[in-house]
Amino acid sequence: MELIAYLKALLGDELPDFLAAVPEPPTVAVNSFKCDRRSFENKLKQWGMTYAPHPVDPASYILASDPLPLSHTLSFLMGEFRYQGISSQLPALALDPQPDETVLDLAAAPGGKSIQVAALMKNRGRLLLNDSSIKRMEPLMANLSRAAVANDVLLNLPGQMIGRLLPEFFDRVLVDAPCSGLNFYTARLQRQHWNVHYLQTIANIQEQLLISAIKAAKINGVIVYSTCSMTPEENEMVLQRILQRYPVMVEPVPDWKLSSARPGWSHHQGYVFPVALQRALRIYPFPDPMEGFFIVRLRKTAGLPIRPVNHPVRWLPTQPFDDPQISPILANLHQLWGIEPSFFAPYRFRVNTHKLWLTTNAWLTIPDSGLVKTGLPLAVKKSHFWKLTSSAAQWLGAQITRSLMELSSDQLHQLLSKGETTNPGEALRYYAATRHGKPIGVVSQSHGKLKLKIPHPFRLVQDTDV
Q1: 145, 281, 302, 360: most buried by Cβ count inside 10 Å?
Q2: pLDDT tens-digit profile of 245-274?
Q3: CATH code linked to domain 403-466
Q4: So where are the chain's domains?
Q5: Rg (the chain; Cα; Å)
Q6: Crossing angle for the helix pair 112-120 and 137-146, nearest 10 degrees?
Q7: Which is catalytic among the residues 228, 250, 261, 400?
Q8: pTM of the model as a whole
Q9: Active site residue 35
Q10: Measured at the alpha carbon of residue 150, what is the angle toward residues 227 and 98, in degrees to the nearest 5?
C-alpha cells in the first residue's frame, strides 16, 4: 500500500507507534464571553464528567469520555463552550494576539481558532476572518455568533488574494492551512486513494497562502503557519522555500512541556532544512494521544514589493449608536425589548435592508470585497419592527426587560428536540424565551405554537440549567 510505504519512509522505526496511537480524547474549551472557568468546572462535575486540564490552556478540559454528549446540553446551545482538539488550540496560543491589534485568520472555518483568537483579544481590536469555501460559511457564522464574537469581519475570498488586497495591514496573521490530514492513522486514510502527488498539490496551495500572509503582515508583524499534518512536504519543505525568498525569520514557539512535542526536522531523505526550523514545533500522536500538528512562528523583517490589484478594496463606513440611521432602530429595540439605547454606546453598527450588525469601535470602516458579515448579528428587519436574533438575546441577557417568556422544563425539552411546542396565543408575536430568567433564544408564537430555530435536534441533558 502506497500510504504505508510512505509512512515507513517518514517515520522509520516509529511506524508501529504511529499505527498503534489512540485517538485524541474529546476536549472542550470555555467561551470566555459567555462563561467563566469556575462555573464551567462546576458544570463538568454536575454532569459527572471525568476530566483533566489542557496541558497549556487552563480554560480547556480534556474529557475521559463524552457519554452524554455535552453537545446536547443547554450550555452548548448557549455557546458557553466549544469542542476544540488539544493540538488545535496551540496555533492561536503561539500567535499570542493582543487586545486592540489588527489580526487576520486567513483560513478561518470552522471557527474554533477564530473564537480562541477573539477571546485572547478580549473581543477588542479588529479581527478579519477569511475562508474561501462558501459551503463552510454557514457553520462558521453559527459558531462565531453562538460564542458572541463581535470584533470580527468575515470575508469569503481566496486566501491567496488577501495579501495583495490588504498589504502590510495586520499586526498578526494566522495561517492554519488546509492540509492532507496525515496526522493519525484513521479509517478515512485507509479508505481513501492516497498518493504523494496530492502532497505536492496541497503544498503549492499552502505555500501561496503563506506568501499571502507575509504580504498582509506589517513589517515586524507575526505570522503563525500551522497544519494538522506530519508530512515534511507540507511543513519544513514549504518553509525552506519561503525562508529563501521572503523577509521573515523563525521565532521560537512557547516552550510548552508536552511529551508528544518535538522540534522541526533538520533533514529528511537527503533534504537539509535551515537550522532555524528546529525552532518550529511538531506534535506527534504518541506517546500522549494528540492530533499530529506542525506549528512555526515567523516575524516579518522588511517590506517587499507587492503587485497592486486591479480592483482595490472599497471601504464601507460603520455607524455609531447615535447615527441618524441607527438610533431609530435602537429606539425600536428599546420599545419592543426594553434594551436601553445607551447600552450600545461603546459599539458601532452596520445595517443593510434586512439585518443590523454590531461590532467594536475599532472598525470605523470595513472592507467590501467578499464581505459576508460584520460582528454579531443583532436584529433582523420585519415588516414594522426589528426582531432580535437568538445569539443577540443570549449575549444581551439581563439587558432585555420586555417581551420575555419563561419556559417550563417540558416546553424547553420540546423546543430543543422538535423546534416547537404548544403555547396559548394566536397572533404572531416574538419573545425572548428564558429558562430561570436567562434568555436562550428568540421564539415566534402563532396559532398556539412556539417555534425556535435550532442547529440540530437536542436530546437535552437534564441539569440545573434545564
Answers
A1: 281
A2: 999 999 999 999 999 999 999 999 889 999
A3: 3.10.450.720
A4: 89-183+200-300, 314-393, 403-466
A5: 24
A6: 40
A7: 228
A8: 0.96
A9: no
A10: 60
